[in-house]
Design goal:
Elements (H helix, E strand, L loop, with lengths): L22 H11 L2 E3 L5 E3 L2 H10 L2 E2 L27 H10 L4 H20 L5 E3 H6 L1 H11 L6 H11 L10 H27 L5 H10 L6 H32 L1 H9 L4 H11 L6 E5 L3 E3 L2 E3 L4 E4 L1 H4 L34 H18 L4 E2 L18 E3 L1
Parallel strand pairs: 2-8
Antiparallel strand pairs: 1-2, 3-5, 4-10, 5-8, 6-7, 9-10
Helix pairs in contact: 4-14, 6-10, 7-8, 8-9, 8-10, 10-12, 10-14, 11-14, 12-14
Bound molecules: protoporphyrin IX containing FE.
The site of protoporphyrin IX containing FE (HEM) has 27 residues, from helix 10 and helix 14.
Length: 396
Protein backbone atom coordinates (compact mmCIF):
# COMPACT_ATOMS: atom_id res chain seq x y z
CA UNK A 1 0.00 0.00 0.00
CA UNK A 2 1.70 3.28 -1.07
CA UNK A 3 2.06 6.01 1.59
CA UNK A 4 -0.24 9.00 1.18
CA UNK A 5 1.79 12.23 1.21
CA UNK A 6 0.90 15.27 3.36
CA UNK A 7 -1.19 17.62 1.22
CA UNK A 8 0.89 20.65 0.19
CA UNK A 9 0.97 23.34 -2.50
CA UNK A 10 4.75 22.92 -2.84
CA UNK A 11 5.10 26.64 -3.60
CA UNK A 12 2.45 26.56 -6.34
CA UNK A 13 -0.61 27.91 -4.52
CA UNK A 14 -2.97 29.42 -7.11
CA UNK A 15 -4.19 31.97 -4.53
CA UNK A 16 -0.76 33.65 -4.30
CA UNK A 17 -1.15 37.19 -5.69
CA UNK A 18 1.79 36.77 -8.10
CA UNK A 19 0.80 33.24 -9.18
CA UNK A 20 0.05 34.16 -12.76
CA UNK A 21 3.27 36.13 -13.20
CA UNK A 22 5.36 33.24 -11.90
CA UNK A 23 3.25 30.36 -13.22
CA UNK A 24 5.90 28.64 -15.32
CA UNK A 25 8.63 28.82 -12.65
CA UNK A 26 6.24 27.48 -10.02
CA UNK A 27 5.06 24.63 -12.20
CA UNK A 28 8.63 23.76 -13.19
CA UNK A 29 9.42 23.43 -9.50
CA UNK A 30 6.26 21.43 -8.83
CA UNK A 31 7.00 19.04 -11.72
CA UNK A 32 10.40 18.39 -10.13
CA UNK A 33 9.40 18.01 -6.47
CA UNK A 34 5.85 16.61 -6.70
CA UNK A 35 4.79 15.80 -10.27
CA UNK A 36 1.70 14.13 -8.79
CA UNK A 37 0.57 16.59 -6.15
CA UNK A 38 -2.14 16.12 -3.54
CA UNK A 39 -3.24 19.69 -2.79
CA UNK A 40 -4.58 21.01 0.54
CA UNK A 41 -7.98 21.40 -1.16
CA UNK A 42 -8.19 17.68 -1.82
CA UNK A 43 -7.75 17.67 -5.56
CA UNK A 44 -4.69 16.23 -7.25
CA UNK A 45 -2.52 18.00 -9.86
CA UNK A 46 -0.63 16.17 -12.60
CA UNK A 47 2.35 18.00 -14.12
CA UNK A 48 3.94 15.40 -16.38
CA UNK A 49 2.90 15.15 -20.02
CA UNK A 50 2.57 11.34 -19.85
CA UNK A 51 0.34 11.51 -16.74
CA UNK A 52 -1.89 14.22 -18.26
CA UNK A 53 -2.29 12.19 -21.45
CA UNK A 54 -3.05 9.07 -19.45
CA UNK A 55 -5.67 10.91 -17.37
CA UNK A 56 -7.46 12.45 -20.36
CA UNK A 57 -7.19 9.53 -22.79
CA UNK A 58 -6.66 6.25 -20.97
CA UNK A 59 -8.25 6.47 -17.52
CA UNK A 60 -11.88 5.88 -16.58
CA UNK A 61 -12.88 9.47 -15.87
CA UNK A 62 -15.75 11.89 -16.33
CA UNK A 63 -16.32 15.60 -15.93
CA UNK A 64 -18.91 14.63 -13.31
CA UNK A 65 -18.56 12.31 -10.33
CA UNK A 66 -19.80 8.73 -10.64
CA UNK A 67 -23.22 9.80 -9.28
CA UNK A 68 -23.43 12.70 -11.77
CA UNK A 69 -22.46 15.71 -9.62
CA UNK A 70 -20.59 18.55 -11.30
CA UNK A 71 -17.80 19.64 -8.90
CA UNK A 72 -17.85 23.31 -7.73
CA UNK A 73 -21.16 24.02 -9.46
CA UNK A 74 -24.55 24.53 -7.82
CA UNK A 75 -27.16 23.03 -10.14
CA UNK A 76 -30.09 23.41 -7.73
CA UNK A 77 -31.73 26.18 -9.70
CA UNK A 78 -30.46 25.44 -13.17
CA UNK A 79 -28.87 22.28 -14.56
CA UNK A 80 -25.82 22.76 -16.76
CA UNK A 81 -26.11 21.20 -20.19
CA UNK A 82 -23.05 22.32 -22.20
CA UNK A 83 -21.19 19.34 -23.67
CA UNK A 84 -18.05 20.10 -21.65
CA UNK A 85 -20.11 19.55 -18.50
CA UNK A 86 -21.56 16.20 -19.61
CA UNK A 87 -20.34 12.63 -19.64
CA UNK A 88 -21.34 10.07 -22.29
CA UNK A 89 -23.89 9.28 -23.56
CA UNK A 90 -25.15 12.92 -23.36
CA UNK A 91 -21.73 14.31 -24.26
CA UNK A 92 -21.47 12.10 -27.36
CA UNK A 93 -24.90 13.16 -28.60
CA UNK A 94 -24.35 16.90 -28.00
CA UNK A 95 -20.87 16.95 -29.54
CA UNK A 96 -22.18 15.11 -32.62
CA UNK A 97 -24.99 17.65 -32.99
CA UNK A 98 -22.73 20.74 -32.75
CA UNK A 99 -20.20 19.09 -35.10
CA UNK A 100 -22.93 19.21 -37.77
CA UNK A 101 -22.14 22.90 -38.06
CA UNK A 102 -18.34 22.66 -38.35
CA UNK A 103 -18.25 21.01 -41.80
CA UNK A 104 -15.22 21.36 -44.15
CA UNK A 105 -17.29 23.75 -46.31
CA UNK A 106 -18.14 26.02 -43.36
CA UNK A 107 -14.51 25.95 -42.22
CA UNK A 108 -13.37 27.06 -45.69
CA UNK A 109 -15.87 29.94 -45.65
CA UNK A 110 -14.82 30.87 -42.13
CA UNK A 111 -11.17 30.93 -43.16
CA UNK A 112 -11.94 33.47 -45.92
CA UNK A 113 -14.02 35.57 -43.55
CA UNK A 114 -11.36 35.48 -40.81
CA UNK A 115 -8.64 36.59 -43.26
CA UNK A 116 -10.82 39.42 -44.56
CA UNK A 117 -11.84 40.60 -41.09
CA UNK A 118 -8.28 40.44 -39.81
CA UNK A 119 -7.07 42.67 -42.67
CA UNK A 120 -9.93 45.09 -41.96
CA UNK A 121 -9.14 45.29 -38.25
CA UNK A 122 -5.44 45.82 -38.90
CA UNK A 123 -6.35 48.53 -41.47
CA UNK A 124 -8.27 50.23 -38.68
CA UNK A 125 -5.16 50.52 -36.47
CA UNK A 126 -4.35 53.97 -37.72
CA UNK A 127 -2.36 55.31 -34.80
CA UNK A 128 1.24 54.33 -34.20
CA UNK A 129 0.38 53.20 -30.68
CA UNK A 130 -2.32 50.58 -30.26
CA UNK A 131 -3.71 48.24 -27.65
CA UNK A 132 -3.65 44.97 -29.54
CA UNK A 133 -6.30 43.42 -27.27
CA UNK A 134 -8.90 46.10 -28.02
CA UNK A 135 -7.99 46.50 -31.67
CA UNK A 136 -7.58 42.86 -32.77
CA UNK A 137 -7.32 40.06 -30.18
CA UNK A 138 -10.78 40.76 -28.76
CA UNK A 139 -12.84 41.88 -31.77
CA UNK A 140 -11.62 39.15 -34.15
CA UNK A 141 -12.91 36.13 -32.16
CA UNK A 142 -15.91 37.98 -30.77
CA UNK A 143 -17.13 39.05 -34.22
CA UNK A 144 -16.49 35.56 -35.62
CA UNK A 145 -18.35 33.80 -32.79
CA UNK A 146 -21.31 36.21 -33.10
CA UNK A 147 -21.41 35.61 -36.86
CA UNK A 148 -21.31 31.84 -36.25
CA UNK A 149 -24.32 32.25 -33.95
CA UNK A 150 -26.08 34.49 -36.47
CA UNK A 151 -26.05 37.61 -34.27
CA UNK A 152 -26.57 40.67 -36.52
CA UNK A 153 -23.93 43.43 -36.41
CA UNK A 154 -26.19 45.91 -34.59
CA UNK A 155 -26.77 43.48 -31.71
CA UNK A 156 -23.15 42.41 -31.41
CA UNK A 157 -22.01 44.90 -28.75
CA UNK A 158 -24.82 43.79 -26.46
CA UNK A 159 -24.12 40.10 -27.12
CA UNK A 160 -20.39 40.59 -26.42
CA UNK A 161 -21.08 42.43 -23.16
CA UNK A 162 -23.14 39.45 -21.96
CA UNK A 163 -20.43 37.03 -23.11
CA UNK A 164 -17.88 38.97 -21.05
CA UNK A 165 -19.96 38.85 -17.88
CA UNK A 166 -20.81 35.22 -18.48
CA UNK A 167 -17.18 34.15 -18.22
CA UNK A 168 -17.55 34.34 -14.41
CA UNK A 169 -19.76 31.28 -14.74
CA UNK A 170 -16.58 29.32 -15.28
CA UNK A 171 -15.63 30.10 -11.67
CA UNK A 172 -18.77 28.31 -10.41
CA UNK A 173 -19.25 28.70 -6.66
CA UNK A 174 -15.73 30.20 -6.40
CA UNK A 175 -16.88 33.46 -8.04
CA UNK A 176 -17.53 36.45 -5.75
CA UNK A 177 -21.15 37.46 -5.11
CA UNK A 178 -20.84 40.44 -7.44
CA UNK A 179 -19.37 38.25 -10.18
CA UNK A 180 -22.08 35.63 -9.70
CA UNK A 181 -24.82 38.22 -9.94
CA UNK A 182 -23.34 39.75 -13.11
CA UNK A 183 -22.97 36.29 -14.63
CA UNK A 184 -26.54 35.37 -13.69
CA UNK A 185 -27.94 38.59 -15.15
CA UNK A 186 -25.98 38.02 -18.37
CA UNK A 187 -27.16 34.43 -18.50
CA UNK A 188 -30.77 35.58 -18.18
CA UNK A 189 -30.33 38.06 -21.08
CA UNK A 190 -28.51 35.53 -23.21
CA UNK A 191 -31.10 32.82 -22.64
CA UNK A 192 -33.93 35.22 -23.55
CA UNK A 193 -32.07 36.37 -26.65
CA UNK A 194 -31.20 32.88 -27.90
CA UNK A 195 -34.73 31.61 -27.19
CA UNK A 196 -36.06 34.34 -29.45
CA UNK A 197 -33.54 33.41 -32.19
CA UNK A 198 -34.54 29.75 -31.88
CA UNK A 199 -38.19 30.66 -32.39
CA UNK A 200 -37.31 32.78 -35.44
CA UNK A 201 -35.33 29.88 -36.93
CA UNK A 202 -38.21 27.46 -36.41
CA UNK A 203 -40.20 29.75 -38.72
CA UNK A 204 -37.38 30.69 -41.11
CA UNK A 205 -34.46 28.22 -41.35
CA UNK A 206 -30.90 29.65 -41.40
CA UNK A 207 -27.43 28.19 -41.91
CA UNK A 208 -25.87 29.65 -38.73
CA UNK A 209 -25.14 27.48 -35.70
CA UNK A 210 -28.49 28.14 -34.01
CA UNK A 211 -30.19 27.31 -37.32
CA UNK A 212 -28.24 24.05 -37.65
CA UNK A 213 -29.17 22.97 -34.10
CA UNK A 214 -32.84 23.85 -34.68
CA UNK A 215 -32.80 21.76 -37.87
CA UNK A 216 -31.23 18.81 -35.98
CA UNK A 217 -34.06 19.04 -33.46
CA UNK A 218 -36.66 19.19 -36.26
CA UNK A 219 -35.08 16.17 -37.95
CA UNK A 220 -35.81 14.14 -34.84
CA UNK A 221 -32.45 14.35 -33.01
CA UNK A 222 -32.94 14.23 -29.28
CA UNK A 223 -32.13 17.80 -28.18
CA UNK A 224 -34.06 19.61 -25.48
CA UNK A 225 -34.58 23.38 -25.55
CA UNK A 226 -32.28 23.75 -22.52
CA UNK A 227 -29.56 21.70 -24.21
CA UNK A 228 -29.83 23.77 -27.36
CA UNK A 229 -29.50 26.97 -25.32
CA UNK A 230 -26.51 25.73 -23.36
CA UNK A 231 -24.58 24.69 -26.46
CA UNK A 232 -24.95 28.26 -27.77
CA UNK A 233 -23.98 29.84 -24.44
CA UNK A 234 -21.13 27.36 -23.92
CA UNK A 235 -19.72 27.79 -27.41
CA UNK A 236 -19.77 31.55 -27.03
CA UNK A 237 -17.82 31.20 -23.81
CA UNK A 238 -15.45 28.54 -25.15
CA UNK A 239 -14.68 30.29 -28.40
CA UNK A 240 -14.21 33.90 -27.38
CA UNK A 241 -11.82 34.67 -24.51
CA UNK A 242 -9.65 31.61 -25.18
CA UNK A 243 -8.86 32.89 -28.66
CA UNK A 244 -8.33 36.46 -27.44
CA UNK A 245 -5.73 34.94 -25.12
CA UNK A 246 -4.07 32.94 -27.88
CA UNK A 247 -3.70 36.00 -30.12
CA UNK A 248 -2.56 38.38 -27.36
CA UNK A 249 -0.21 35.88 -25.67
CA UNK A 250 1.14 34.96 -29.07
CA UNK A 251 1.91 38.49 -30.26
CA UNK A 252 3.41 39.26 -26.86
CA UNK A 253 5.74 36.25 -26.96
CA UNK A 254 6.67 36.91 -30.58
CA UNK A 255 7.64 40.48 -29.71
CA UNK A 256 9.47 39.40 -26.56
CA UNK A 257 11.52 37.19 -28.93
CA UNK A 258 12.35 39.60 -31.80
CA UNK A 259 14.38 36.92 -33.65
CA UNK A 260 11.18 34.82 -33.88
CA UNK A 261 9.13 37.83 -35.07
CA UNK A 262 11.72 38.43 -37.81
CA UNK A 263 11.69 34.74 -38.71
CA UNK A 264 7.92 34.85 -39.13
CA UNK A 265 8.14 38.05 -41.18
CA UNK A 266 10.65 36.37 -43.51
CA UNK A 267 8.75 33.08 -43.80
CA UNK A 268 4.98 33.40 -43.42
CA UNK A 269 4.55 29.62 -43.79
CA UNK A 270 5.76 29.41 -40.18
CA UNK A 271 2.44 30.89 -38.96
CA UNK A 272 0.90 27.43 -38.32
CA UNK A 273 3.79 26.10 -36.24
CA UNK A 274 4.03 29.49 -34.47
CA UNK A 275 0.43 29.06 -33.29
CA UNK A 276 1.23 25.60 -31.92
CA UNK A 277 4.29 26.95 -30.16
CA UNK A 278 2.21 29.68 -28.46
CA UNK A 279 -0.33 27.05 -27.39
CA UNK A 280 2.56 25.09 -25.85
CA UNK A 281 4.59 27.92 -24.36
CA UNK A 282 1.86 30.26 -23.08
CA UNK A 283 -1.52 28.49 -23.25
CA UNK A 284 -4.60 30.57 -22.41
CA UNK A 285 -6.17 27.55 -20.67
CA UNK A 286 -3.56 26.38 -18.16
CA UNK A 287 -5.41 23.33 -16.83
CA UNK A 288 -8.43 21.07 -17.22
CA UNK A 289 -9.95 18.61 -14.72
CA UNK A 290 -11.64 15.25 -14.55
CA UNK A 291 -13.23 13.14 -11.79
CA UNK A 292 -11.85 9.63 -11.46
CA UNK A 293 -14.49 6.99 -12.12
CA UNK A 294 -12.31 4.25 -10.62
CA UNK A 295 -9.41 4.16 -8.15
CA UNK A 296 -6.13 4.85 -9.94
CA UNK A 297 -2.47 5.26 -9.16
CA UNK A 298 -0.42 8.12 -10.57
CA UNK A 299 3.24 8.23 -9.58
CA UNK A 300 3.45 7.14 -5.95
CA UNK A 301 -0.04 8.26 -5.09
CA UNK A 302 -3.10 6.05 -4.93
CA UNK A 303 -6.15 8.15 -5.73
CA UNK A 304 -9.72 7.19 -4.90
CA UNK A 305 -12.53 7.32 -7.37
CA UNK A 306 -14.51 10.60 -7.48
CA UNK A 307 -11.38 12.61 -6.65
CA UNK A 308 -10.96 15.64 -8.89
CA UNK A 309 -7.68 15.35 -10.80
CA UNK A 310 -6.31 18.32 -12.69
CA UNK A 311 -4.19 17.95 -15.81
CA UNK A 312 -1.89 20.97 -15.61
CA UNK A 313 -1.56 21.59 -19.34
CA UNK A 314 0.88 24.48 -18.87
CA UNK A 315 3.24 22.17 -16.93
CA UNK A 316 2.84 19.22 -19.32
CA UNK A 317 3.70 21.58 -22.20
CA UNK A 318 7.15 22.21 -20.74
CA UNK A 319 7.95 18.65 -19.70
CA UNK A 320 11.62 18.01 -20.63
CA UNK A 321 10.78 14.30 -21.11
CA UNK A 322 8.79 15.31 -24.21
CA UNK A 323 10.12 18.69 -25.39
CA UNK A 324 13.77 19.53 -26.13
CA UNK A 325 14.77 22.84 -24.51
CA UNK A 326 11.21 23.35 -23.19
CA UNK A 327 11.85 26.91 -22.00
CA UNK A 328 12.91 27.99 -25.51
CA UNK A 329 10.26 29.69 -27.65
CA UNK A 330 10.84 28.22 -31.13
CA UNK A 331 8.17 28.93 -33.74
CA UNK A 332 9.51 26.19 -36.01
CA UNK A 333 9.35 23.47 -33.32
CA UNK A 334 8.60 20.04 -34.83
CA UNK A 335 7.10 17.82 -33.54
CA UNK A 336 5.04 19.75 -31.03
CA UNK A 337 2.61 17.48 -29.16
CA UNK A 338 1.40 20.31 -26.88
CA UNK A 339 -1.74 19.93 -24.79
CA UNK A 340 -3.09 23.47 -25.20
CA UNK A 341 -6.47 22.14 -26.42
CA UNK A 342 -6.82 19.45 -23.72
CA UNK A 343 -7.31 15.86 -24.83
CA UNK A 344 -9.50 12.77 -24.99
CA UNK A 345 -13.21 12.98 -25.73
CA UNK A 346 -13.49 16.65 -24.66
CA UNK A 347 -10.53 17.81 -26.79
CA UNK A 348 -11.39 21.31 -28.02
CA UNK A 349 -13.98 21.22 -30.79
CA UNK A 350 -12.96 24.69 -31.99
CA UNK A 351 -9.22 23.98 -32.25
CA UNK A 352 -9.15 24.39 -36.02
CA UNK A 353 -11.09 27.65 -35.92
CA UNK A 354 -8.89 29.04 -33.14
CA UNK A 355 -5.80 28.21 -35.18
CA UNK A 356 -7.22 29.88 -38.29
CA UNK A 357 -7.86 33.08 -36.31
CA UNK A 358 -4.46 33.17 -34.64
CA UNK A 359 -2.61 32.33 -37.87
CA UNK A 360 -4.33 35.19 -39.66
CA UNK A 361 -3.49 37.61 -36.83
CA UNK A 362 0.20 36.59 -36.63
CA UNK A 363 0.61 36.56 -40.43
CA UNK A 364 -1.01 39.92 -41.15
CA UNK A 365 0.71 41.74 -38.27
CA UNK A 366 4.19 40.34 -38.90
CA UNK A 367 3.94 41.09 -42.64
CA UNK A 368 2.78 44.65 -42.18
CA UNK A 369 4.69 45.62 -39.06
CA UNK A 370 8.08 43.91 -38.93
CA UNK A 371 9.30 46.68 -36.60
CA UNK A 372 6.45 46.35 -34.05
CA UNK A 373 7.52 46.64 -30.41
CA UNK A 374 5.92 46.10 -27.00
CA UNK A 375 5.61 49.29 -24.99
CA UNK A 376 6.29 47.30 -21.82
CA UNK A 377 7.64 43.79 -21.23
CA UNK A 378 5.30 43.46 -18.21
CA UNK A 379 1.81 42.16 -18.54
CA UNK A 380 -1.30 42.80 -16.54
CA UNK A 381 -3.55 39.75 -16.63
CA UNK A 382 -7.30 40.21 -17.04
CA UNK A 383 -9.63 39.23 -14.19
CA UNK A 384 -10.68 36.17 -16.18
CA UNK A 385 -9.90 32.68 -14.94
CA UNK A 386 -7.99 32.17 -18.15
CA UNK A 387 -4.51 33.44 -18.94
CA UNK A 388 -5.33 36.54 -20.94
CA UNK A 389 -3.57 39.91 -21.01
CA UNK A 390 -5.86 42.78 -20.01
CA UNK A 391 -4.15 44.99 -22.60
CA UNK A 392 -1.17 44.77 -24.95
CA UNK A 393 0.13 48.25 -25.79
CA UNK A 394 2.31 48.20 -28.93
CA UNK A 395 4.16 50.67 -31.03
CA UNK A 396 3.76 49.66 -34.67
C1 LIG B 1 -7.12 29.35 -28.39
C2 LIG B 1 -8.36 29.07 -28.34
C3 LIG B 1 -8.89 27.91 -27.60
C4 LIG B 1 -8.32 27.17 -26.60
C5 LIG B 1 -6.94 27.34 -25.96
C6 LIG B 1 -9.29 26.17 -26.22
C7 LIG B 1 -9.07 25.22 -25.26
C8 LIG B 1 -9.98 24.26 -24.89
C9 LIG B 1 -9.78 23.30 -23.84
C10 LIG B 1 -8.50 23.19 -22.98
C11 LIG B 1 -10.89 22.55 -23.76
C12 LIG B 1 -11.14 21.43 -22.75
C13 LIG B 1 -10.52 20.18 -23.27
C14 LIG B 1 -10.44 19.09 -22.24
O1 LIG B 1 -10.92 19.25 -21.09
O2 LIG B 1 -9.87 18.05 -22.59
C15 LIG B 1 -11.81 23.02 -24.77
C16 LIG B 1 -13.05 22.49 -25.00
C17 LIG B 1 -13.91 22.99 -25.93
N1 LIG B 1 -13.70 24.04 -26.80
FE1 LIG B 1 -12.02 25.12 -26.99
N2 LIG B 1 -10.42 26.33 -26.98
C18 LIG B 1 -10.22 27.38 -27.84
C19 LIG B 1 -11.08 27.88 -28.79
C20 LIG B 1 -12.31 27.35 -29.06
C21 LIG B 1 -13.21 27.83 -30.09
C22 LIG B 1 -12.90 28.96 -31.07
C23 LIG B 1 -14.34 27.07 -30.01
C24 LIG B 1 -15.60 27.11 -30.83
C25 LIG B 1 -16.10 28.11 -31.42
C26 LIG B 1 -14.15 26.11 -28.93
C27 LIG B 1 -15.05 25.16 -28.54
C28 LIG B 1 -14.83 24.22 -27.57
C29 LIG B 1 -15.83 23.23 -27.19
C30 LIG B 1 -17.22 23.05 -27.78
C31 LIG B 1 -15.26 22.47 -26.16
C32 LIG B 1 -15.91 21.31 -25.42
C33 LIG B 1 -15.66 20.04 -26.19
C34 LIG B 1 -16.26 18.81 -25.53
O3 LIG B 1 -16.67 18.86 -24.37
O4 LIG B 1 -16.35 17.79 -26.23
N3 LIG B 1 -12.90 26.32 -28.37
N4 LIG B 1 -11.23 24.06 -25.46
Amino acid sequence: MPLQPEPSWHGANPDEPDFRDTLHERYRHLRKVAPVNLTPRGYVRLCRHADCERLLKRTKVGVRTVDGTLPSVDETHMARAFMLEQDPPHHTRLRRMVSRYFTPRVMEELQLRVDELCEELVDGMDSREVDLVQSLALPLPSIIISEIMGVPAEERAMFNAWSNDLTYILLGTRASRAQQSRANAALGHMVGYITEKVQQRRREPTEDLIGVLVRAEQEGEQLSEIELLWQCVGLTLAGFETTTGLIANGVRQLLLHPDQWRRLHEDRTLAASAVDEVLRYEPSVAATSRCLHEDAQFGDIAIERDTVVMAVLAAANRDPEVFDAPATFDIGRQPNPHMGFGGGIHMCLGAHLAKIEAMAAFRVLSQRYPGAKLLSPHVQWSSSLLRIPQALPLCL
